[in-house]
């Protein structure tokens, strides 16, 4: 029996199919969310079904999460990404006590118990600085992909980016470019700025156990290293950090097969 | 609204503006008030009608931002915007405004407001001790003289005693209504609690308001328990004032399945605690009781914690949400201490929400609120 978790984020739609008994992963898929959340849900579901070589109708339960969670008419249950990232991270790294997630428009620090239940969480405020959106802006400004930004950042010496707002930071970066600052220094500076924003969230919740880093930005090893340095703790990074929320949703879906709701 | 008396309250309070204008035409004076520290009792003793003034809507904020800094709290901006646009009928009807130096943003805004209307500014001490009570009593004595001069009248001690007795009856009736939510499940929703308190604060006829509140309490006390709300997590909302237009967090909490059973702020439950000792010198009793109000502007603010503990137990809550308006420094800073107290002493889950009146962050708030409720499940 198979179950699925679908995570519609602001940047990407993610899906995971699990075997409900063994909890082993049958397939996953990641596509851009685009502007039509409902369509993104349909597409990522059909993509992941194709990967797993099963039909939509053979999925026993589907759990939806992420910003687009309310636009999934076929979901059996809808759960927030905070709960899902917690479940996913605890499944992958059972010693996890704190989950750090940097998504497209939110960053979060989530404190969890040994079963992956959320004890406390804190999210960034309305502002986009310190989220994936900030890097998207940088990527557009410098004409580099996330991978290119990562390798540039590793070579650069971080310049100070002092603006606390993504829009003002853009102005600041344009100024730095005009002064002839090398893009690698700017990339390193932005990575450091995002890691520092994360540290202020991290510092508000006491750390117990290990720290696991999830979300799209965690796929940059350069950034994960920078974050680990900034926090002065080791961080676990899942092999596909972006799908941790969808995995958590699938794990909750697997639970639904055994508990009547 | 599900209860017959709630509908009656809605119908009666729909006529609030009309009734106020009629009373004014018949020669009554109107006193507009912004803050809970301004005592309605003195205005009533002066023969005037005290009413709350508008400050809970987002619409008036853009006008205010032409003068005030954008980073100021939405409550101050909204209040000032209403004054600039002359769009608050209660403010238009008011002969005088009574305000107090609650926080820095308010007192500087009141300087600007004083150019539009006679405004009496009470200098609120920010500590709760006997020196402060003496000083605060003196402020109330000055307000007493101000009313006598403005309205060309004499206020006797007996006038004040009668006003205190009336407002004590009003607050007891309000408490009776709010306390029906101690039962599980609560008969009223948080939205109904908020709307009831909000609408009645603009009502001129206090005697009529008392009658409506007691009728409502009687109806609620006799109502059969609602089955649908039986499993809803019971939430205590604490923090900044809320009203129609600034109710979004209450609404989002309840849309996500919570039951807001107690609203510990000065537009709701805090009003019920201002029961004045009727056996003391009335002005002293008034000053003592009012100054005890646990607002975050007080330093220290010990009653905030004792009240939270008492309410959390009496209303058997499952979690506490602390709402602070963006730019409200005192409540925002105090939230850290409140969080520690709720976690370590009350052993309850706690969520701090910082927002403004605009709907811009609805989805972000939904994630926080739903995740918090998932945590309680």
Keywords:
heterodimer; A: 261 residues; alpha/beta; Nucleotidyltransferase, domain 5; five-stranded mixed sheet; 10 strands; 41% helix; globular; B: 377 residues; Rossmann fold; four-stranded parallel sheet; 17 helices
Structural overview:
- The complex is a heterodimer of chains A (261) and B (377).
- Chain A has eight helices and ten strands.
- Chain A has 261 residues and is an alpha/beta fold.
- In chain A, the strands form two sheets. A five-stranded mixed beta sheet of chain A has the order 3-2-1-4-5. A five-stranded mixed beta sheet of chain A has the order 8-7-6-9-10, with helices on both faces.
- Helices cover 41% and strands 22% of the residues of chain A.
- Chain A folds into two domains: 2-83 and 243-258, ATPase, nucleotide binding domain (Nucleotidyltransferase, domain 5, 2-Layer Sandwich), CATH 3.30.420.40; 94-237, ATPase, nucleotide binding domain (Nucleotidyltransferase, domain 5).
- Chain B has a domain at 15-153: Rossmann fold (3-Layer(aba) Sandwich).
- Helix content of chain B is 51%, strand content 11%.
- Chain B contains 17 helices and eight strands.
- In chain B, strands 2-1-3-4 form a four-stranded parallel beta sheet, sandwiched between helices.
- Chain B is globular.
- The interface between A and B is medium-sized, with 15 and 12 residues.
